[in-house]
Write a structure and sequence with these properties.
- The mean pLDDT is about 95.
- By secondary structure, this protein is α/β, with parallel strands linked by helices.
- The protein has a single domain, classed as Ribokinase (UDP-N-acetylmuramoyl-L-alanine:D-glutamate ligase, 3-Layer(aba) Sandwich), CATH 3.40.1190.20.
- The two termini are about 35 Å apart.
- It is globular, with a radius of gyration of 18 Å.
- An 8-stranded mixed β-sheet has the order 4-1-9-10-11-12-13-14, with helices on both faces. A 4-stranded mixed β-sheet has the order 3-2-7-8.
- It has 11 helices and 14 strands.
- The chain has helices spanning about 40-50, 65-75, 120-125, 135-140, 140-155, 175-185, 195-205, 210-215, 255-270, 275-290, 300-310, and strands at about 5-10, 10-15, 30-35, 55, 60, 85, 90-95, 105-110, 130-135, 160-165, 190-195, 225, 235, 240-245.
- About 50% of the residues are buried.
Length: about 325
């Protein structure tokens, strides 16, 4: 099977508090596990939108690993380069939500199976039309960064377009300069960058979302899709800026919504749609991604997404 879209990075399960404003520093109730990990969510969403997608990562040879692989396989994602690692547990993210909209995570990733992501074969990478990289994968370990950098070189060299979601926290990487250094090898090959406004500023050191996006477009990137949450998105090219309105929903769980947005954006570009339609599809996927508890539970088939775009009512 020739793949159109490949994502790579961490695969984890998420375990979350059942109540809002219930911190993680005391015994209480959790629900889960839910399949998660930014690039895994992206690959799953792309498959739901009708495109052949693959995921490169690693899970443990345990029940949580089975939870992840079973879900990806059932949804049509190719996982031949997502092995079960016998001597490492599957990565886990514990999360709680607060009434002000903030979240707190505790991660077990770097020393889990997720941190042992394998090198995929050159043949596998060369078939991609889009290779999607998440900044989270660049932050896990030096090994994962090197695997991602190699994949970007191979895929871009074979004519694939590179999409990059820089969901990084500079305080975890030694500051803004370290963040830019880590992201540079991907940005140097990226066709599409999918930041928030603050991330665009962090990547460039330029204040103001529009000016930061112009700075990104001074490099190889040709399209910038800025996530604006409940305000929709803005799309920048060297010739134009489009502000795309949102699809209002009642947000239940925002985790994974940005990855669903990314999948809609990449699929729209892959299909050659006008940028306004690309932004609308991305906004719809992102909005739906926030309507279910669990990072992948807001991923819906293409027909459900299009019905939502027409009617404005999320699937039940």
């Amino acid at each position: 099977m020739n793949l159109e879209i490949i994502a790579m990075g961490e695969a984890v399960v998420e375990v979350m508090r059942t109540e809002v404003d219930d911190p993680l520093d005391h015994p209480s109730t959790f629900v889960g596990p839910f399949p998660s990990g930014a690039p895994a969510i992206f690959a799953d969403a792309a498959a739901h939108l009708g495109h052949r997608s693959g995921f490169i990562g690693a899970v443990g040879d345990d029940d949580f690993g089975a939870c992840l692989l079973d879900r990806l396989a059932a949804d049509g994602v190719d996982t031949q380069f997502c092995p079960r690692i016998s001597d490492r547990a599957t990565g886990v993210a514990f999360v709680t939500y607060f009434s002000d909209g903030s979240r707190r995570f505790l991660f077990h990733i770097a020393h889990a199976a997720a941190g042992q992501m394998p090198d995929a074969s050159e043949e596998y990478l060369r078939q991609a039309r889009f290779l999607h990289i998440c900044g989270s994968a660049l932050s896990v370990s030096e090994r994962m960064r090197k695997v991602c950098y190699r994949a970007v070189e191979i895929a871009a060299g074979a004519g694939a377009r590179i999409s990059f979601d820089p969901n990084l926290r500079p305080e975890l990487l030694g500051g803004e300069e370290a963040l830019r250094r880590i992201c540079a090898p991907v940005l140097e090959k990226a066709y599409l960058v999918l930041p928030s406004g603050s991330e665009a500023e962090l990547l460039t050191g330029v204040k103001g979302t529009e000016e930061a996006c112009k700075a990104l477009l001074d490099g190889p990137a040709e399209v910038i899709g800025v996530k604006r949450g409940a305000a929709g998105c803005s799309v920048f090219t060297r010739d134009a800026k489009l502000d795309i309105p949102p699809y209002p929903v009642e947000a239940v769980d925002p985790t994974g919504a940005g990855d669903c947005f990314d999948a809609g954006f990449v699929v729209g570009l892959l299909e050659g749609r006008p940028l306004e339609e690309v932004g609308k599809l991305a906004n719809a996927c992102g909005a739906l991604g926030a309507t279910r508890k669990g990072p992948m539970e807001g991923v819906f088939p293409r027909e459900a997404v299009e019905r939502f775009m027409e009617e404005g009512v999320p699937p039940e």
